[in-house]
Amino acid sequence: MDFPPQVGIGVSRTGRGVAAVADRYDMREHLNPRRATILMWDQAFLLRHHEGGSFADYDRVLDETIERGYNTVRLDPMPQYLDLSKPETVMPWRDTGDRFNPWGGNKQIDAPLGQWLIDFMAALSRRPLYYTLSAWWNSNGGPQLRSKPENHIQAAEIWINFLHAWEKRFGFDRLLYVDIQNEVPFFIPGYRDRFTKETGHGWDDLPSFSDAQRDWLARDLNGSMRMLHREFPQLRFTASIHGDVRWIDVPLEFDCLDVHFYSDADLRWRERTKMHDHFGHMYSDDSWFKDYSDRCTAANACMGPMFRARQRDKLAQFAAWSRQRGMPLTTSESWSSWFYVDHPNLDWGWLLEWSAWTVEDAIDFNMWGWTPHNFGQPQFTNWQDVQWHQRLTERFLRS
Known about the structure:
37% of the residues lie in helices and 10% in strands. By secondary structure, it is α/β, with parallel strands linked by helices. The chain has a single domain, classed as Alpha-Beta Barrel (TIM Barrel). Strands 7-6-5-2-1-11 form a six-stranded parallel β-sheet. A three-stranded parallel β-sheet has the order 8-9-10. β5, α4 and β6 form a beta-alpha-beta unit. α4 runs parallel beside α6, α7 runs antiparallel to α8 and α8 runs parallel beside α9.
């Protein structure tokens, strides 16, 4: 697994992200929905649809989604695996042994995932819900890949074929946007190595992207957008990114801007919590959980206002960039730690406190789409706190 550590050193060389825009026009008021309350369901909505799984009953889970005030779900339909013309194909999915992996699958299954996807979309279509599509491109215990892109041009080619099949099967009603690659430059195998080889510097090497790095990213990503825009003028496309302000120097032609803001982009948080020290065993070993939880709680109690101020400044920069380039700003996973699970040694108190104040920041910076955290799936205990979710979603939807 190619883990996505955050980058806290980035600075926009041009300052475009902080330019004041004296314009009362708000593109969100002309979008449907006006505000998107988003849940990240990744591949779990398919891989946990087995008997006893958290997504076993699609009708129940979707009704609970509406009850909690969410109107949009983010789905990975696994275009690297699924052939929508053969939905009955049974796919073997092995147990990876990652005992503490919060997302994806949680047991070995042999299942017709294509048919499960059809069942899910039928249930969604009966409810007032929107959805986005996103691709991780990883194998994650699955069978042999049908397709494996090396860059975003190749990813766009795969998406074009997949979306034509999607349109025939489901149509595009209530599809808000397609995220062709989750969290560039991570998850496409070998992508960062090619970036380093062809630009002369690694992803984390420079405080600002060099001209070569900026041009390389723009050529690859805008090339993919050009293909998709020409093929599907009726759809919106993007590629999600981390809250690394170096991106603001890249002249991207995205239709919306899905940015994942995480606390470990702040070096003060990273060193206090030591999360990155545990990348090699975080899914398989819980020996570090209590120390991490205690450190998070202490860091938040001591530095919470400072962390929030820095995160708000980053929001301001991306919000200005989104206006300038006509890309409404969303986040479909975000804010504090990107890894947490239900465990006796992990206290969720600090995380939920952090999540609760993000709705005010999302409102202040005119975000189109917001999520309180990236654990909005029914396998997490927090899912059962209906009033907690309602309080936050209602606040955002009323803004």
